[in-house]
Amino acid sequence: MKTATRLLSVLALLAVLAGCTTVAPAAQAPAAEQAAAPAANSVVVADVERQPAPAFDSACTAADEGAVVPADFTPDRPLKIAVLGLENNPFWIPVKEGALKAAEELKPYNVTVDWIVPGETHTADDFSGGMEAAIAQEYDAIATIAGDAGLVTYIDRAVDAGIPVATFNSETAAPNKRLFFVGADLYKQGEAAGKAMADAIGGAGKVGVITGFFAVEAHELRRKGFEDYLTANNPDIEIVAQVENSDQGDIAYTQAQDMMTANPDLAGIYVTAGGPFGAAAAVEDAGKTGEVKVISFDFVDETMEYVQKGVISATIGQGPFAQGHDPAIRLFNYIVTGEAPECGRLLTEAALVTQDNIDQYWTPPAQ
Amino acid sequence: MEQPEVVQVGTARKGESGGSFWRRLLQSREFGVFLALVGLVILMRFLTPYFWKPDNIFNVLRGMSTIGIMAIGQTMIIITGGIDLSVGSVLAASAMITARLMYTGVVSPWVAVLIGLGFGTLLGAINGLIITRVKVTPFIATLGMLSIARGLAYLLASGLQGTVASNVPMRDESVNFLGAGYIGPVPFPVIEMFVLVIVFSLFLRFTVLGRQIYAVGSNEQAARLSGVSSDMVKLFVYTITGTLAALSGIMTAGLLGTSATNAGTGTELDVIAAVVIGGASLAGGSGTIIGSIIGAAIMAVLRNAFVLLQFPIYMQTISIGLVIILAVAIDQIRRRSS
């Protein structure tokens, strides 16, 4: 409330001071009228005083996650925001939907949001090029996936050039100058999976872990979060195997079979990354549905079908829509109001989907 | 001229000359690798009661079946002195076109399978043509195909609507039998693998084309001088490897009831490792399919051991590397001493 009042007075002052430059917003008025948005206050982007970025590793959950609305100010010039994403698997469908929704919401404010796919992997190999191109094309703000530390230089370069940057989905451990991050805390997701497993198997028994790659930090955080949660809270659960499946379903199938062979009393299988449907298929083929509980991540069709069948007991989400939607909106708000988000990491909700609540999260694909 | 003699040496390795059958068997590289496998199996049997159970043995065999089937083609390529890095991607692209056609229902399921096999064959043939006609080295040509075929898999999965998809369902029971079926207690993929191993082993040993594959690998120039069309031989091995990769892809998708864009990622290295462990030389001219299958089995037993014996996680990655080096090193030492 207080900030809003202060902000309004600042803006009023700015409007008076910059009276002569209001020509530009006036020229854009017809565009704003075409769209259904209410008449907005105009603001001179160059004059907005920007707050410093919140502490890099401060974390909180945003109350308006996935539903944050644009601040009601029309900038004095058209703005363009780049969202650098991926499309290499269906996880990204809702992320892209989020970005497109943000584009639609920002259009009345004379803002274009471009969804750009710079490559096939999370790494700096692909995203450094995407960042460079976005800087060269003079985007006013950039939202990007930051899969590894190689991206730090590029993020800092953009920010030094006056382009605010937000990261989403994955984040470098090394601090950089980004304004905020929208995504899951992977370690906490692992802990949530540990709790889901403990609940599913009644707090005791043998479980196996199938992780994507020992070399991928995100997978390791989910694996360790799971392990640490069980060590701390459920001493009667024993982890009897930990293997990597390179995110592949057929390898997970063989590994799940091997786990059930070595442990006829196996109670659960935890898949940290890709290919959980392979483990689920092995459990189903072995006739052990309900006996061996599978816990996995994300809401892709193959996973959801096994949740519906009861083979996968629970799958954990990470707010993919918000990851695509919120960065663009919050960056816009920062540009027009100067207000930075409360904390550096805006952690998305780890929704737990089971057979009971699957209808809220998934409808089977047509055909 | 010296060169024709070299051809003689190359082709005679599998020929009738020298020693008794048993002596040749004992000296053969495959026998050394076979002993390593037997040793590993005995060790496993001793270490865990779960290993030597029919179910587990069949699981291990099924788990290695697609690697084994691709290793058949890779062995022939490596004998010619070439290499194919694209098998994992060709696997994914072929499976994807099959699944896509089945899903959209434009053709009947088995026609889709034939088109999928044809697609893999075509990609293999393109490898062969680029290598023989354009004279691009096999490493580079197939490295390019590794990327192209993976991209095709993405494209086929996403379809024309431009949506993102990593998986396309494949739900025809009769087709899925190729990857998921059982005949009695025996997984059908295991039967497919053994039939192909026998057919191609006989082919390599007893047909003219089979012998020419060794000749080209031993000394290509000499083989050409003695009337072998080395380009035809090479085109053949890359093409047939494409077909085998496509079959592996359809089997993988059939097992899971879904075709994944990332299926077979990195598999080329497992396939090449199996062939090298099995005694083939990357320099060309030597190697057998049986050896490669034993190589694939050693890796499969090792991966089974990771789970059965609860290997510490980082030891898993290290041990795969150690086994590859050890298998080849032991063979080198054994040969030098004999």
Task: Characterize the structure shown.
The complex is a heterodimer of chains A (367) and B (338). Chain A contains 12 helices and 15 strands. Chain A has a 7-stranded parallel β-sheet with strand order 2-14-8-7-6-4-5, with helices on both faces. In chain A, strands 10-9-11-12-13-15 form a 6-stranded mixed β-sheet, with helices on both faces. Chain A has 2 domains: 2-183 and 320-348, 3-Layer(aba) Sandwich (Rossmann fold); 186-316, Rossmann fold, CATH 3.40.50. Chain A has 367 residues and is an alpha/beta fold. Chain B is mainly α and 338 residues long. Chain B has a single domain, classed as ABC transporter involved in vitamin B12 uptake, BtuC (Orthogonal Bundle). A two-stranded antiparallel sheet of chain B has the order 1-4. Chain B has a two-stranded antiparallel ribbon with strand order 2-3. Chain B is globular. Chain A binds chain B through residues 87-90, 92-93, 96, 120, 208, 214, 240-244, 246-250, 253-255, 257-259, 261-262, 274-275, 277-278, 281, 285, 300-302, 367, and chain B through 48, 50, 53, 55-56, 59, 62-63, 66, 103, 154, 158, 163-167, 169, 180, 252, 255-258, 260-266, 303-304, 306-308, 310, 313-314, 316-317.
Features:
heterodimer; A: 367 residues; alpha/beta; Rossmann fold; six-stranded mixed sheet; B: 338 residues; mainly alpha; ABC transporter involved in vitamin B12 uptake, BtuC; two-stranded antiparallel sheet
Strand content of chain A: 15-25%
The CATH architecture assignment of chain B turns out to be Orthogonal Bundle
Q: Give the strand order, joined by hyphens, for the main sheet of chain B.
A: 1-4
Q: Return the CATH topology of the largest domain in chain A.
A: Rossmann fold
Oligomer class:
heterodimer
Query: Which structural class is indicated by helix and strand composition of chain A?
Result: alpha/beta
Note the gap between the termini of chain B: 30 Å
Q: Specify which chain pair forms the largest interface.
A: A-B, 38 and 41 residues
* Domain module count of chain A: 2
Shape of chain A, please? elongated
**Strands side by side in the biggest sheet of chain A:** 2-14-8-7-6-4-5
- CATH homologous superfamily assignment of the largest domain in chain A: Response regulator
